[in-house]
Amino acid sequence: MKGILLLEDGLELSGTLFGSCGFSGGEIVFNTSMTGYQEILSDPSYYGQLIVMTFPLIGIYGINPDDFESDSPRAAGFIVKEIAPAASNFTAEYSLDAFFRKHNMTGISGIDTRFLTRHIRSRGAMRAVYGPEKTRRDLIEKIKKLPQMQGADLVQYAGCKSRYVYAEAPEGSLKIGVIDCGIKTNILRLLAQDGIKVICYPPRFAIEEISNDNIHGLLLSNGPGDPEPLNYIYEPV
């Protein structure tokens, strides 16, 4: 299906929708990685954002069950030059298009992503939206209604909702607490591989709960949105 990408500053680009072929909108950002698109899509730090991939062909090795950085896709959308028609990897469970359809997500291909990246770099942060070509008028209205990233507290959506133990360890082992603002699974996995007991807390944690766990150190994870309104995290710490 033919689609249109519309940026807040008026730039309009035509492409082809894939996945569920609906609408997607959010802050537009770019990523220059040649691989790792599965990890990027599932990285909670990208919550609410449209990701522009500068590498020209995306989806070659498909989607496999072992490389997720969270339990579901977190990016709002995906903008690529070309999408691979099939996955060429024995571990792949889905092609990129099938994965997007499974999760009711929409991406757009056929975009000159390197031109778009240069445009974003020169013009700065802005909102964008894409959808079916025939809904251009609706896209203009949708982009006006998208929330601004400045002042946006998104860690409440990206982080965990309650305390949980990610990894147990023998008695006497190092014990690390993690304020989960949208942490990547691989960071937790690497801590656990070193024999550390890992305890995760939600962004709106109770300081008494952390004190009662007698941890040896505290890690504040990265996450999406604007850090300015997160005084409820850094003031208690």
Helix count equals: 8
Major sheet attributes: 7 strands, mixed, barrel
Please list the strands of the largest sheet in the order they lie side by side: 1-2-8-6-4-3-9
Strand content: 25-35%
In short:
This protein is an alpha/beta fold. The protein has helices spanning 37-41, 96-102, 113-123, 136-145, 155-158, 185-193, 207-212, 231-234; strands at 2-7, 12-19, 24-31, 49-53, 57-58, 77-79, 82-83, 106-109, 127-132, 164-167, 175-179, 197-201, 217-220.
Write up what this structure looks like.
With 237 residues, this protein is an alpha/beta fold. The chain has two domains: 144 residues, Carbamoyl-phosphate synthase small subunit, N-terminal domain (Glucose Oxidase, domain 1); 80 residues, no CATH class. Helix content is 24%, strand content 26%. The chain is built from eight helices and 13 strands. The chain has a seven-stranded mixed barrel. The longest helix has 11 residues. The radius of gyration is 19 Å and the shape is globular.
